[in-house]
Write a structure and sequence with these properties.
The complex is a heterodimer.
Chain A (H helix, E strand, L loop, with lengths): L2 H19 L6 H17 L8 H7 L5 H14 L4 H14 L5 H12 L8 H12 L3 H17 L1 H6 L2 H11 L3 H21 L5 H4 L4 H9 L6 H11 L7 H11 L8 H14 L4 H20 L3 H17 L1 H4 L14 H14 L5 H12 L4 H16 L4 H13 L3 H17 L4 H8 L10 H13 L7 H10 L7 H17 L1 H16 L4 H16 L1 H8 L15 H9 L4 H5 L26 H5 L14 H4 L2 H12 L27 H4 L6 H4 L25 H10 L4 E6 L10 H9 L3 E8 L2 E9 L9 E9 L4 E8 L5 H14 L4
Antiparallel strand pairs in A: 1-5, 2-3, 3-4, 4-5
Helix pairs in contact in A: 1-2, 1-3, 2-4, 4-6, 5-6, 6-7, 6-8, 7-8, 8-11, 10-11, 11-14, 14-16, 15-16, 16-17, 17-18, 18-20, 20-22, 21-22, 21-23, 22-23, 22-24, 23-24, 24-26, 26-28, 27-28, 27-29, 28-29, 28-30, 28-31, 29-30, 30-31
Chain B lengths: L3 E6 L4 E6 L8 H10 L12 E4 L2 E8 L2 E7 L5 H19 L4 H6 L1 H11 E2 L2 E2 L4 H4 L20 H4 L28 E14 L5 E14 L7 E5 L3 E3 L1 H5 L12 E3 L1 E4 L8 H4 L1 E4 L4 E10 L7 E9 L4 E10 L6 E10 L4 E8 L6 E6 L4 E10 L3 E10 L14 E8 L8 E6 L9 E15 L2
Parallel strand pairs in B: 8-25, 11-12
Antiparallel strand pairs in B: 1-2, 1-5, 3-4, 4-5, 6-7, 8-9, 9-15, 10-14, 10-24, 13-15, 16-17, 17-22, 18-21, 18-23, 19-22, 20-21, 23-25
Classes of the chains: A mainly alpha, B mainly beta.
């Protein structure tokens, strides 16, 4: 339909509507219906029919429900863009809000709230008040959501009229479960938005996560629709249970939700279970066992899409607790009908769960996929075989398989395999003999991909003694220098040629000259620089050059993982969300304003400065232990310790600059943080990364570990488990010397007493310190100190808890003497 | 909560569009469609159901050749959104009888009525077909079901001459029938999707049955129903060892690894006598999903022979045997064999007197396709194919061809032996005796024979 035609049609419609407006003729409703349908169908395909607004409204004075609803739909769509016209509708909508039929009341109220017009806000307040008190559940459901809509149009008129409080009341009292659910989601959104609008305190929101509310919700969980159950379960997952008995009771009630056919309900339940048991290692393990079967059932029932959402979560859990799923490996075999995005996840899971007992079967299966028609999956499969080989199980057999790949003579298979064989050799030099024999047979002409070429060149240089024709193969590469497009390959070639020269000089000196000349003339800066470096080194003497270019090397023990364990923990915190599907924490894919609050869990839990530490108790809101050590495989544990070694606060959090909820400042080594976390000036010093830590041996009787490591979750767990062994009162000699906590922190740190968290405002500061007895095994021999100081009076008090109470007196002396030194040093 | 919901045709036209939050730009449908259509990535990859473009998350499910899409800017549960989209599609089908582009276009006002009640401000409200009835005032315009493709849901269950009322599965829950009186009936369908992988020696490497007991009720007054399953069902025992073939349980037991149930199902008597009690809501819904890795007899055995027949020639012989009773007939049995990349020509040789069989060589991806419209239980069929290759082979030709994959539908047959023994109204009355249908169908999911 061209523009003119359309215009004509609209004029026609307008006239017809106008004629019908006042008509009471029999059958007129049917004609109207047809016209309305036409208008709405135009609206759907994106034609602007707003010019019919007044005619549509005039016609809507009708008792015909179908017409009414179409009119509501139309008005809702255009009111925002035409606020003046929207005013026309207020009258009949308000009238309908008082209709006898509850359905009409509800429909009218919903349309009224959906107008999204600022200057009509005043007309909403009355009907909303009435709606929340309506005797009919449907109307109250609509009203609860209406309050949220009002908040989005005008936050102040929502809060000024006390709507949040009314919602809270309905939440606790309403007999209709859907009303309760709508109150819950409205309140969550409103409280969250209010927090960022005002002081950033999440006190209101957290009031939803209290025992009384949570119990109320759990006890009537079956009254809710399945969608509302998801909402409720999500809220429950934010609740911190006070003791194991409570957790068990909650899990008992929710247990049968795991048998639900709706995957969203099951995943939400699993999240609750996982969170409730975080601090109970063995129970946590049992939860994994318990959820295995339901998850596998959900993966295979339902549509491909639903299955994808579930399998993404399964993937996360499998990677966290591979041993639990090791016996289920056949479930992760790829099916012919699986889409490639599912196959990829399955391959990663198979790689993760391979162990002594199933490696042979898994690798056999993966080898089948290597011949797959789907090239992308074939490649992934070969990489998976390589990764399993690097995990050390049954390397012997795997190497044989890899070498068989090379015999398949498919270019992409050869390419992937070469890269893997290279990695394998770096880890298991002892396999060189077998590998090299086969790699030597690979025709260098069939290798075209840069990564594979570089791998081949590296092997030729490294194993020049074993491969007789290595110099001649490399010579071929050097001769084709100009045609080689990849700088990566040219760099590798320079190194390989130089290495081979050290080993077999007579055969390679000519080639070395040619390679260096070509390298020096190379347009690529890195290639040029490397050629020059080698040239200069060789000028210094062959031996010196060899020591630099080809020093004796050690086998690589663990290859760096692509994703850090912190990131993986963040994703686990966001279980049952898009973060799991994307395999990225939400701050990486959401706009700033949609990120919501930073959930203070695990490592960040102890640091909510302003609101929590002013109380005399530890923040109980987020007591969640880190379950890392429970479930990680041995190698990962090693790696995560390594990570901690870089400073336990070296958590690379989101870019928080410009984030406008200042309160729950997550620890981050991002310097811009200090500008937003005004209440916690000490935070970037907390990072403790840059201090030249000079451990001073303090007391002969008790030696402390220079750089003790303790993650916040463990600190919290210990703190809640241990009792106060000693309370020390001390008056600081130079109280005025403490305008901010940093100097004291640095001082204590220099004496091997680390700070876990600090907070407060002058003159009153509060710190949590910890220290560890030197030479004690990991995670034992800790001292935990809560230290409160008033800087104006100098009076301080320290509460000490310890793993080993016998050492407390010694530590107390040391602590006080360290304090005494503060200011004098 | 979601920001928008829309339904697109496969050409990218907006059929239904609803904006709930106004925080995602209007052009989102177009952005989505381009992204799905031109999904970048390695060859043959399709767009995943969930992706993010410029901070907007797009989630979609494909149903009846239509794309059901939701957008959001917040980090919500993907399972919830995908389940919701699936549910919207199902509820719509309940009301329209048939779900396709045509029926949606003819009934879009009714669909808007449904959507308004199912989602408010982006939050799911009620999605029960039953509860929505009181809010829907438009009469559905019923689309002619006869124009549906022959393999539509109605055709699934047709077994020889035992023809069930074909209109049943395409009937709207609200439409009145020509006679004015509603036909009182309830359908219980046992749908099993089977996956089997045979290794090159013909042994079963893995097998699984994913089953659903689906109910579609057109009963008025919501009477309570008891569904009785065979009482030798045992649940959960096979799960622990997983794939322990023939292990545990009594002889002839039906061992389910795990199962889940619809909200409305009460399991009071389930442990005792394997009956499910429920008051079926209107519309179509799964009563129970189950999964089984217990060994079962695969319905088809395939004996492939692939061998060289000279320097530029090879031969593929496929023999299929139907291992099920002669009273049963499988429909649309299709075998696909990827051939060596160097294959240039294939000549086929069907057995004499073959009826309803077709063969094809898909040049583009070098796949041989053999389709048998019907295969009667107990019968055997053979196909010979002579390949012409452009290159002399050096490596084993077997590695270049296969694996063979197979698709089929077998009505009134189920591999698991799980059965619905009875379907009773709890309150029996002489005057009220609705039609009750129990139907079985077995579908291939991933049926692979390695070479």
């Amino acid at each position: 339909m061209n523009a003119d035609n359309r215009k004509g049609e609209l004029v026609e419609l307008k006239n017809q509507l106008r004629q019908l407006a006042g008509s009471r003729a029999p059958g007129v409703e049917d004609v109207k219906r047809e016209l309305y349908k036409k208008v709405i169908s135009y609206m759907t395909i994106g034609i602007d029919v707003s010019s019919l607004f007044s005619e549509m409204v005039m016609c809507s004075a009708t008792s015909d429900l179908v017409l009414k609803k179409m009119c509501y739909l139309y008005v809702g769509n255009y009111a925002r863009g035409h606020p003046d016209l929207a005013l026309l509708t207020i009258n009949f909508l308000q009238k309908d809000c008082h209709d006898e039929d509850p359905m009409i009341r509800g429909l009218a109220l919903r349309s009224l709230c959906s107008l999204r017009v600022m200057n009509l806000v005043e007309y909403l307040v009355g009907p909303l008040h009435a709606g929340l008190k309506d005797s009919n559940g449907y109307v109250r459901t609509v009203a609860a959501m209406g309050v949220l809509k009002l908040y989005h149009i005008s936050p102040s008129s929502c809060t000024d009229n006390d709507f949040p409080a009314m919602l809270k009341t309905q939440l606790l009292q309403d007999s209709d479960a859907q009303v309760v659910a709508n109150c819950l989601c409205a309140l969550q959104e409103i409280y969250l938005a209010e927090a960022s609008r005002s002081d950033g305190s999440l006190k209101d929101r957290d009031s939803l996560y209290t025992t009384s509310v949570i119990y109320l919700l759990i006890n009537r969980i079956k009254d809710f629709s399945e969608w509302a159950q998801c909402l409720v379960l999500d809220v429950v997952s934010k609740y911190v249970s006070s003791n194991p008995e409570e957790s068990f009771k909650m899990m008992d009630i929710l247990e049968d939700r795991l048998q639900h056919a709706n995957s969203a309900v099951v995943l939400a339940t699993i999240k609750v279970f996982l969170h409730l048991t975080l601090s109970m290692a063995d129970i946590h393990q049992q939860v994994y066992e318990r959820i295995k079967a339901p998850l596998l059932t959900l993966v295979s029932s339902g549509s491909v899409e639903q299955s994808y959402a579930v399998i993404s979560h399964l993937h996360l859990l499998v990677l966290r607790a591979p041993t639990v799923f090791a016996s289920e490996y056949k479930h992760f075999y790829c099916r012919y009908s699986d889409p490639s995005y599912v196959k990829k996840l399955k391959l990663e899971m198979l790689t993760a769960i391979a162990n002594e007992s199933n490696t042979y079967e898994i690798v056999t299966e993966l080898c089948e996929y290597a011949a797959n028609v789907d090239v992308a999956i074939a490649r992934e499969s070969i990489r998976a075989v390589g990764k399993i080989a690097l995990q050390q199980y049954d390397v012997n057999a795997i190497v044989d398989r890899l070498l068989q790949f090379l015999e398949m003579e498919k270019d992409y298979v050869t390419a992937e395999t070469l890269v893997l064989v290279k990695d394998l050799l770096r880890k298991y030099p002892q396999w060189s003999h077998d590998c090299i024999a086969v790699v030597g047979n690979v025709s260098s002409k069939s290798v075209t991909e840069p990564k594979a070429k570089a791998a081949l060149v590296w092997m030729l240089g490294e194993y020049a003694y074993d491969m007789l024709d290595a110099p001649y193969v490399l010579e071929g590469f050097v001769e084709n220098w100009a045609e080689e497009e990849s700088a990566e390959v040219r760099l590798e070639l320079l190194t390989a040629v130089t290495k081979i020269f050290f080993k077999r000089p007579p055969e390679s000196i000519k080639m070395l000259g040619a390679a260096l000349a070509a390298g020096l003339a190379d347009a690529h800066q890195d290639v040029h620089d490397r050629a020059l470096l080698y040239y200069r080194l060789l000028q210094q003497g062959v031996e010196i050059a060899e020591r630099v270019v080809n020093p004796p090397k050690q086998a690589v023990s663990v290859f760096a993982d692509t994703q850090s364990s912190e990131i993986r923990d963040r994703i686990f915190d966001e279980f049952n969300s898009l973060a799991v599907v994307y395999q990225e924490p939400s701050y990486m894919f959401l706009d700033k304003e949609h990120r919501g609050p930073i959930e203070l869990t695990e490592d960040t839990g102890i640091l909510p400065m302003d609101s929590k530490l002013s109380n005399d108790v530890l923040p109980s809101q987020h007591v969640e232990a880190n379950d890392n050590d429970l479930l990680l495989s041995a190698s990962e544990r090693e790696e995560s310790r390594g990570g901690v070694g870089n400073g336990s606060y070296a958590y690379s959090g989101p870019d928080l600059s410009g984030f406008d909820t200042p309160s729950p400042a997550a620890p981050s080594n991002n310097a811009s943080l200090s500008s937003t976390s005004h209440t916690s000036p000490a935070i970037d010093d907390l990072l403790g990364l840059t201090f030249p830590a000079a451990p001073v041996p303090t007391s002969p009787s008790l030696k402390l570990k220079p750089k003790p490591l303790l993650d916040p979750a463990t600190f919290q767990r210990k703190w809640s488990q241990l009792t106060i062994a000693s309370t020390l009162d001390h008056t600081l000699s130079q109280p005025a010397a403490l305008p901010s906590p940093q100097p004291l922190l640095r001082h204590m740190q220099a004496h091997s007493i680390e700070c876990m968290a600090s907070g407060g405002q002058a003159p009153k500061f509060k710190f949590f310190f910890f220290a560890q007895v030197a030479d004690s095994p990991p995670s034992t021999g800790f001292f935990l100190v809560e230290f409160v100081v008033n800087t104006s009076s100098g009076i301080s008090q320290a509460k000490v808890k310890a793993d080993n109470a016998d050492l407390v007196p010694a530590f107390g002396d040391l602590f006080v003497s360290t304090l005494r030194k503060f200011g004098s040093s | 909560m979601i920001s928008q919901f829309f339904v697109l045709s496969l050409r990218g036209d907006n059929i239904v569009f609803r904006d709930y939050r106004g925080d995602v730009p209007k052009g989102s449908a177009e952005i989505f469609f381009r992204k799905v259509k031109f999904w970048k990535g390695e060859e043959g990859e399709e767009a995943p159901p969930i992706f993010n473009v410029d901070g907007v998350n797009y989630m979609h499910v494909k149903q009846a050749g239509l794309l059901f899409v939701a957008t959001t800017r917040v980090n919500l549960s993907p399972a919830l959104v995908l389940e919701l989209l699936q549910r919207i599609a199902r509820v719509t089908k309940d009301y329209l009888g048939v779900l396709n582009e045509d029926s949606l276009r003819k009934n879009f006002v009714l669909v808007y009525e449904l959507l308004d009640e199912m989602i408010d401000f982006g939050y799911p409200q009620t999605t029960s077909t039953e509860a929505l009835k009181s809010f829907v005032f438009n009469e559905p315009v019923v689309v002619d079901a006869a124009r549906m493709p022959s393999l539509g849901p109605a055709a699934l269950f047709i077994q020889g001459s035992h023809r069930l009322p074909g209109t049943a599965v395409t009937k709207s829950v609200v439409a009145n029938e020509p006679g004015g009186k509603k036909r009182e009936e309830v359908f219980v369908d046992i749908i099993e999707k089977i996956s089997v992988t045979f290794n090159s020696s013909g042994y079963i490497l893995t097998s699984e049955i994913d089953g659903t007991i689906q109910m579609k009720s057109y009963l008025s007054g919501n009477p309570e129903i008891k569904v009785g399953l065979n009482d030798d069902i045992s649940i959960g025992h096979a799960g622990s060892g997983s794939y322990e073939y023939g292990a545990g349980g009594g002889v002839g037991m039906v061992l389910l690894d795990d199962c889940n149930f619809h909200e409305s199902v009460r399991l009071d008597d389930f442990e005792l006598d394997r009956t499910l009690t429920l008051i079926p809501p209107d519309g179509e819904f799964p009563i129970m999903n189950y999964r089984m890795t217990q060994e079962f007899k695969p319905p088809f055995k395939v004996y492939p022979v692939i061998e060289e027949a000279g320097p530029f020639k090879a031969e593929v012989v496929l023999k299929v045997r139907a291992d099920f009773p002669t009273t049963i007939t499988a429909n649309m049995v299709i075998l696909r064999v990827p051939l060596p990349k160097t294959t240039t020509r294939v000549s086929f040789d069907l057995e004499t007197g073959a009826v309803g069989q077709t063969t094809d060589f898909k040049e583009a991806n070098k796949v041989l396709e053999w389709c048998c419209r019907k295969i009667v239980g107990g019968s055997e069929h053979t196909l010979r194919a002579k390949l012409t290759l452009s290159q002399e082979r050096t490596v084993n030709i077997k590695k270049e061809a296969g694996p063979i994959s197979m698709t089929f539908t077998i009505p009134m047959y189920n591999a698991s032996r799980l059965q619905v023994k009875f379907l009773q109204l709890v309150k029996k009355s002489k005057s009220y005796n609705p039609h009750r249908w129990v139907r079985y169908v077995t579908l291939s999911n991933s049926y692979v024979i390695r070479t």
